[in-house]
Automatic annotation (TrEMBL):
Protein name as it appears in the record: PhzF family phenazine biosynthesis protein
Source organism, top-level taxon: Bacteria
PANTHER family xrefs: PHENAZINE BIOSYNTHESIS PROTEIN
InterPro entries: Phenazine_PhzF-like (IPR003719)
Signal peptide: none
Pfam families per UniProt: PhzC-PhzF
Organism lineage: Bacteria, Pseudomonadati, Pseudomonadota, Gammaproteobacteria, Oceanospirillales
The organism of origin for this protein: Zooshikella harenae
């Protein structure tokens, strides 16, 4: 049985508090895919990032949940580059990461790490699966059609990892949401989305743009405190469908966890002729603990 060092970092923290914990494994070149999945299962966090050498980027990054590998994880990427910076292994203002689907840019600014994301793409669930039943899905989240932010409907947004965005009319509705049965997992599998990303325009702090929650039982995630890719998708949704024609957004998450873990996610849009070309999702991170485990 071998041993490995795990670094735990809270990403998208709010004034050094809260955030979403991720596990980072450095110098992972020698690990097999099976090793990585075992380590991710034992890591104690919903995301584990494995960092290895790359011939085309600053580092190669691979991301695993306790159940499976996924293409991207913004909060785990933030954890990786914050840790590299703390250890003096990343000293410039810019870097790149090699991922499953190409190279992504990273930059450091005002104490925050920003990660490049593709422009989001949106479509209705019915475009994928004829048997989609909105009422049944909402019931599985302890919600109903009356709780939606009319006239908006749930949409699938994709920026590398697809999510089902569900617009809710106020904070009270967002607060009462919960996974009540296997319906959410069932629909996540058939729609091929990571999970359900619920949002309200009611916010805890003035100047923020939306408050959010993520339920992703398909990947073994009961609820997540900060989800960078989904926040980037939401910023694109606010820009395109709610006509918030601005280039910077601040998204809240984690306030309704028990115990709460407030998180802040900053999104910057790059547009060409008012169309989103790409985005950067960023925030702060706080190193938590280091642990050696056997696998």
């Amino acid at each position: 049985m071998a041993q490995i060092t795990l670094h735990r970092v809270h990403a998208f923290t709010d004034h050094n508090e809260g955030g979403n914990p991720a596990t980072v494994v450095l110098d992972a070149d020698h690990l097999s895919e099976e090793d990585k999945q075992k380590i991710a299962h034992k890591s104690g966090t919903y995301r584990t990032a494995f960092v290895s050498s790359s011939s085309s980027a600053t580092v190669k990054t691979e991301f695993f949940t306790p159940q499976a590998q996924i293409a991207h994880s913004s909060h785990a990427t933030l954890a990786v580059f914050s840790l590299l910076r703390k250890q003096g292994k990343w000293q410039s203002s810019e870097a790149t990461k090699e991922t499953i689907d190409g190279i992504r840019k990273i930059y450091f600014e005002d104490g925050q790490v920003f990660i490049e994301q593709k422009a989001p793409v949106f479509h209705a669930p019915l475009d994928i699966w004829q048997a989609y039943d909105e009422q049944a899905l909402l019931a599985g989240l302890n919600l109903s059609a009356r709780d939606l932010l009319a006239p908006l409907q749930p949409v699938i947004g994709d920026m590398g990892n697809p999510f089902l965005l569900i617009p809710l009319k106020n904070a009270a509705v967002l607060k009462k949401a919960r996974v009540v049965d296997e319906t959410v997992k069932h629909y996540s599998e058939f729609l091929d989305v990571v999970g359900c990303y619920l949002f309200s325009l009611d916010v805890k702090q003035q100047g923020h743009d939306a408050s959010t929650r993520l339920f992703a039982p398909r990947l073994g995630i009961k609820e997540e405190s900060a989800t960078g890719v989904a926040a980037g998708i939401l910023a694109g949704f606010l820009y395109e469908f709610i006509n918030m024609k601005k280039l910077q957004f601040v998204i809240e998450q984690g306030h309704y966890l028990q115990p709460p873990s407030p998180s802040l996610l900053h999104i910057k849009l790059n547009t060409v002729q008012q169309e989103i070309a790409h985005e950067y999702v960023g925030g702060c991170a706080q190193h938590d603990t280091t642990e050696i485990i056997s696998y």
